[in-house]
Amino acid sequence: MHTGAMPTPILQAPDPRPATRLASSRWRGAAWRLGVVALLAACASPPDTTADAAQRLAAAMRGRSIVLLGEVHDNAAQHALRAQALRRHLADGARPALLMEMFDRERQGEIDRALAAPHADANAAVEAVIAAGTGGAAGSGWDWRFYRPYLALAVEYKLPIVAVNISRADARRVGSEGLAALGFDPALPGDLQSGQAKAIVEGHCGAIDISRTGPLVAAQAARDQFMARAVEANVERGVLLLAGNGHVRRDLGVARWLPPAVRDRSLSIGLLETGTMRVPARAYDLVVETAAQARSDPCLAFGRAAPDRP
To answer: What is the per-residue burial (b if ≥16 Cβ within 10 Å, else e) of 17-33?
Structure first.
């Protein structure tokens, strides 16, 4: 059972760069480190420790019927780690429904038909699911290189694939007409509203005033509420939700919309990039840190440089 008194363990995944800093043991607030992988600079050929980290992640998931597994969407190392952990999780006997933020809910019928249709091989089945889930739109915004391994495992183990995002059109409607317009709960707790607004300002590199975040907060709440409904609908089978780190936060995300009995059975795992963000110590049950993905400064799109982060 999750309680507010529990610390957040941190599992630090291997950093492909020279990484003596990973050997250090340090405190961050109330958090403590679990299974830290130490890579020694003296080793000419560091051991392959991704498998070790995946094994520890799978061990944390073992026996948990509801796993909310976060991600930084473009972090290749995180996807490789999660895919290995998922394979181990399935090898342990888990058969959860695979809930994916990458597919809009309107595409569920097409996804189901693609899964049920005959295919030449598993690769063909995966491509059919992607085409069905995106409507064949190349500009869906997701890098499918990262998500094919999860879909391949779903095909191999015959897992249901559940679309849990709301479309951009629905998000715009919620933003302009309110959550109730699409049947979502408009009663947002004050701490959730303020926390989401702060996260949105930070995500926009401070380029949006907090007073203008209302529509974006509503859209985020709609996504989280729909994901929570999908979790409830599949709770008896078991659930693995693949979504961004913001959605899997216990304090602001999907868990806030789950009934207490379901929430207490869930495990929330954030996959964060070392040194790039700070979150409350109990935003997740487990934090996995990886190296930051090499990328251009996203804040340049807002006409400013990224803030320094301790």
So the answer is: eebeebeeeeeeeebeb
3-class DSSP assignment, residue 251: coil
Contact 227, 255 (CB under 8 A): no
Does an H or E element contain 17, and which?
none
Q: Indicate the pairing of strand 66-69 with strand 286-290.
A: unpaired
Residue 32: pLDDT over 60: no
Angle at Cα 278 formed by Cα 210 and Cα 246, nearest 5°? 65
Which of the four pLDDT bands, split at 50, 70 and 90, describes residue 30? Answer: very low
**Which token pair is 143?**
């890098």
Q: Rounded to whole angstroms, how far apart are CA atoms 291 and 129?
A: 31
d(CA 38, CA 54): 15
Tokens 């933003």 belong to residue? 175
Residue/partner pairs of 203-209 with CB below 8 Å, 24 or more apart: 204/302, 205/298, 205/299, 205/302, 205/304, 205/306, 205/307, 206/302, 206/304, 206/307, 207/299, 207/302, 207/303, 207/304
Dump pLDDT digits (tens) for 49-95.
789 999 999 999 999 999 999 999 999 999 999 999 999 999 999 99
Determine which helix (DSSP H) or strand (DSSP E) holds 33, and give its type and residue range. Answer: strand 32-33
- H-only helix segments in the chain: 50-61, 76-91, 108-116, 122-134, 144-157, 168-177, 190-203, 214-233, 260-263
What's the pTM? 0.86
Which three-class secondary structure state does DSSP give residue 95? coil
> How is residue 179 written in tokens?
């959550």
| Angle formed by the axes of helices 122-134 and 144-157, nearest 10° | 120
- Amino acid identity for residue 109 in this structure: G
The model's pLDDT over 243-293, given as tens digits with 9 standing for 90+, comes to 999 999 999 999 999 999 999 999 999 999 988 767 787 899 999 999 999
